[in-house]
Amino acid sequence: MRYIDLYKNSVKRLEESGVREAGLDARLLLESVCKTDRTVLYAHPEREVTPEEEKTFEAFLSRREKREPLQYILGEQEFMGLSFKTEPDTLIPRQDTETLVEDAMKDLHDGMEILDVCCGTGCILLSLLHYSNDCRGTGVDLSEKAVELSRKNAELLGLSESADFLVSDMFSGVTGKYDRIVSNPPYIPTKVIGTLDPEVRDFEPERALDGGEDGLDFYKILAGKAKEYLKRDGIIYMEIGYDQGPAVRDLFMKEGYKNVEVLKDLAGLDRVVRAHFY
Length: 278
Description:
- With 278 residues, this protein is α/β, with parallel strands linked by helices.
- The chain has 2 domains: 3-66; 76-277, Vaccinia Virus protein VP39 (Rossmann fold), CATH 3.40.50.150.
- Helix content is 38%, strand content 20%.
- The protein contains 11 helices and 9 strands.
- The chain has helices at 3-16, 22-34, 39-43, 51-65, 70-74, 98-106, 123-130, 144-156, 198-201, 217-225, 245-254; strands at 76-79, 82-85, 113-117, 136-141, 163-167, 178-183, 230-239, 258-264, 270-277.
- The strands form 2 sheets. The protein has a 7-stranded mixed beta sheet, with helices on both faces.
- The longest helix has 15 residues, at 51-65.
């Protein structure tokens, strides 16, 4: 079958399955299987797809029709200009979370120690280490598979010497003190999870989504325990839901943190809470 025909047929199938960006997803799947780039679709639409390529593409397309996230099918996602391996045991890195990294980088100095709580793929910690000098970090996650994936991403990015990852239920396995703590914890209220898009609801790990009845369970732990692991003049940065800014800010103010601020993302929505510990 010709490249253009396979592409058009796949776009139609994905649209019928309710995939929002059917054209983009079909193109990316096709490029991954055929080892091509976006110019081929326009410059060489008549290119013949081999039977082997077509078979692999069909398997990928069937998975996407069932609303499995593209990032799990392709096994990677770009974040902060870096490529991270993705697996179904971890949340997919999202552009919204880049706001947290960018805000943390503004206050990050050479040689600092960083702790990433609920590290997932390791994308937050590894991005900070990649774009800084002589910093070191530790990432913790309750999931053994998430920790394994973080280590793999650290190796692929050449950061194994500066990043350690360990299995820990929040702070349970953490020792020492850090200059900066970062976290993208589960923050979706339990009752909301059933209303999410199928890609999230049916495929991403629920334990990495569910923040309890009010979505604040993990922020309560962070507010109560983080100061035990922060050095004086340390700062914690946390991603939040768009409507959680005031509640999370209040939690940290009640625990004695100073200069607690709610920071917005590029869309103007509350996205990060930053709190100082003196």
